[in-house]
Design brief:
It is built from seven helices and seven strands; from the N terminus they run E-E-E-H-H-E-H-E-H-H-E-H-E-H. By secondary structure, it is an alpha/beta fold. The strands form two sheets. It has a five-stranded parallel beta sheet, sandwiched between helices.
Length: 221
């Protein structure tokens, strides 16, 4: 499976992913792949690839002695519709052992239809659930900005746990918990985590991933 690098790192929103080689302790074709499908928040916008939170997840995996390879398929500026358009291509590269879906942030920033977001997320999860072998799936929750209004914010928030429940996936309530809105953990734009914030995001993600990855590692022993 081709490795998608931390696309968008030090780049501009809307950039397409680029492919490249990965350093890992096992064969590229033999180790389970942990795929992160997301926006600039996953891509590591404004950071070097080594500073993105996905790199910290790889470091934690390595520290546990698990033979797994993290693939960062984050794309800056992408909406849920964009994620849906490329999920077939991503799965066509080979079925990952685990997929975490982080989408919707740009839908919320642009005030896009919540009904469309729910349909798109449902379709993404449906395609993942239909893959064989079926990968483990984690849904990352997201929040809309308060200035979108209470009704929009509440409806937006409910999309993610509903989708996770429908497909019986693991669920991370809020990717940016303890980071969003805190200046010391964000870059100058107030939206994208800085290196310290990225470490906190990695800690959030790890709480949802660790038990799932432990099961995958046990199955591959």
């Amino acid at each position: 499976m081709a490795l998608l690098t931390a696309c968008g790192a030090r780049g501009e929103p809307g950039e397409e992913p680029s492919s490249g080689a990965a350093k890992n302790s096992g064969s590229r074709d033999s180790v389970p792949v942990v795929l992160f499908v997301g926006t600039s928040l996953t891509a590591g916008y404004g950071l070097s690839p080594e500073e993105a939170w996905t790199a910290e997840i790889q470091a934690r995996i390595d520290a546990r002695g698990w033979q797994m390879r993290v693939v960062n398929a984050g794309v800056s500026g992408e909406t849920s519709a964009g994620a849906l358009r490329r999920i077939d291509w991503l799965l066509g590269q080979g079925t990952p052992a685990l997929v975490m879906v982080e989408t919707g942030a740009n839908d919320g920033l642009r005030g896009l239809s919540i009904d469309a977001l729910e349909v798109n997320l449902d379709s993404i999860l449906g395609k993942l659930a239909a893959a064989r072998p079926r990968p483990a799936i984690v849904v990352a929750g997201m929040e809309a900005l308060p200035n979108m209004g209470t009704t929009y914010v509440n409806r937006f928030r409910q999309v993610f746990p509903r989708a996770a429940q429908r497909y019986r996936t693991a669920y991370l309530p809020f990717l940016l918990d303890g980071v969003a809105g805190i200046a010391r953990f964000n870059q100058a734009d107030g939206i994208h985590p800085n290196p310290e914030g990225a470490d906190r995001v990695a800690a959030n993600v790890w709480t949802a991933l660790e038990p799932v990855l432990d099961s995958i590692a046990s199955a591959h022993r």
